[in-house]
Q: What sequence folds into this?
């Protein structure tokens, strides 16, 4: 399972959706980054493969960053990839 985290301006919590395979995760990543580069804001509607009822709509001009990661090992335990939990030094 691949997770796409979308970091929004002025929001400390990312919006996350999952894709079952790497190809669809990379495709979604590319479409989001293309929308971010457009001069006019665009509404991006997303669904989640893991939770089919989950839907979210985001304006492209509110996105600060997009992260694609594979959910394995420590990430599967609920930790964000690339960050240490407090007390794990």
A:
């Amino acid at each position: 399972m691949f997770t796409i985290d979308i970091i929004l301006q002025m929001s400390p919590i990312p919006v996350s959706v999952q894709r079952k395979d790497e190809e669809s995760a990379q495709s979604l990543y590319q479409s989001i980054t293309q929308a971010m580069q457009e001069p006019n804001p665009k509404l991006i509607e997303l669904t989640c493969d893991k939770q089919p009822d989950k839907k979210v709509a985001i304006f492209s001009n509110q996105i600060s960053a997009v992260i694609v990661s594979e959910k394995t090992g420590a990430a599967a335990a609920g930790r964000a990839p690339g960050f240490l939990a407090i007390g794990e030094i």
User: Anything to note?
Assistant: The longest strand covers residues 63-70.
